[in-house]
Structures are given as structure tokens and as C-alpha cells.
Amino acid sequence: MKRYTKPVVGLSFSAALIAGIQCQTAQAQLSLLTPGGPADTGTSVLADALGTNTGPEAITISWSVSESLSDVYTYTYVVNNPVGDVVLDNNGNPTLTPEIVDAYSVGFDTTQPGNYIMNSQIGGLIGLNNGSAGLFWAFTPINPGTSSGPLSFQSDNAPILGNANAQDRNPPSPWSSSPDGQQVPVPGAVPEPSTTALFALTGLFLVPFRSKLLQLVGGAKKARSSC
């Protein structure tokens, strides 16, 4: 799965600030797609209710993001139920009952400008727009070793990484990105041209101070070890 760096607005010559930024979990922005070009694709793992993020009890999400020539982004997800997924008993022990998956959701604020193009949600048996909580799909239950159909929607905004959730009525459901799984692409804000230009000018300004900056980064690395 690709990871992408989110631009940080503003710079400081403080080693402590640099260290603090390095210690944060990156909520990265996806790389720029070519309008009308190939989709960005990947796979994310959702951990089960016990925090298991490997093996048959963890659900995987295949995803893609493509950008049209008119700058519309299409987000598509497929829920994969691994071979060997079984219902767990009250003590977390595996039973002989195969576990199904029948619902999926992604968390982002659909009410924010450009995040969600109305009525663009397709796939599954039921699709719900939950506003600030994101989008939800219910679909025909998928058995271990099978996958859902494509679940998709469109947005005017480029992707960042956000949380996803899959579920059924029985443990190990629900499966989630947080805290033990992996995030998936969801719509986020697009950097304004003025901000992009500011980064370019700042980079030129920093050239004469390269040696000083390297000293500060060295100090930041020491500070990072305490994170």
C-alpha cells in the first residue's frame, strides 16, 4: 500500500518543532494522479475486534482512486473475506462456523465542500450517506474466500488516508482501521495554488541555511528518540 506525505503549512527553525512533526502519525495525502491516467491502487488490512491484523480473521480491502479529465475522483473499494475466517466464541476461540461479512463504511465528512458528489454512491444492496460520519454500504453476505462487488462514490477532492470499518453480527466483527488496522483513501482538502507556491519559495530561501538546518535536524533526531 502506498503512503503519501501531507504538506505541513509553515516552517520553523526550531529543532523541537521538527521533532514533534516527526513523532506524529502521518495522515498523508495521496500522490497527484494524472487526469484520465491510471488509477492509484492498493490493499489495506482491517483488524478484527480483538486487534488481530494478520491471518484469516483480518479483513482486507482492495481499493483504487482514479481522476477523470474533468478532475473528478472516483473512489472504489472491494471487501475481501479471507479463506478460513470463522466465528469466534465468547472467549475469542475459533468455532467451526464460517464467518460472513455484509457491511462496509468509510469515515470522512461528506458535508465538507467537494468531499462528496451527491447521489454518486453505488454498489451493494443499500447505500447510506451519514454526513459527518461518512458513507455506508450493506451488501449480500460474502463467505470466506469471496469478495463483495465494487463499492464506489465520486468526489471533487483528492485523497488522504482515513478509517474504514467492516461488520457482521458475530465476533470477530467488527473489523476496523483503528487502532490496529490500516487506513484507506478517502477525500480530503486539496492544497491551494498559493500554498504550493509558498513551499517553492520557502525551499529557495532555505538554500543558504542548509548547514544550519542540518544541525537542527540532527538535534531533532535526538529529540525523536524520546517520542
Description of the molecule:
The chain is α+β, with helices and mostly antiparallel strands and 227 residues long. The protein has a single domain, classed as Immunoglobulin-like (Sandwich), CATH 2.60.40. Helix content is 17%, strand content 32%. It contains three helices and 14 strands. Helix 1 packs across helix 3. The N terminus and C terminus are likely disordered.
Keywords:
single chain; 227 residues; alpha+beta; five-stranded antiparallel beta sheet; 3 helices; 14 strands; 32% strand; elongated; disordered N terminus
According to CATH, the fold-level topology is: Immunoglobulin-like
What would you call the shape? elongated
Q: What is the C-level CATH assignment?
A: Mainly Beta
Any idea what the radius of gyration is? Answer: 21 Å
Mean pLDDT: 77
Summarize the topology.
Elements: H1 15-23, E1 40-46, E2 59-67, E3 73-81, E4 86-88, E5 94-98, E6 101-106, E7 126-129, E8 135-142, E9 146-147, E10 151-155, E11 159-162, E12 164-167, E13 175-176, E14 184-187, H2 193-206, H3 210-224
Antiparallel strand pairs: 1-2, 2-3, 3-9, 3-10, 4-5, 6-8, 6-12, 7-8, 11-14, 12-13
Helix pairs in contact: 1-3
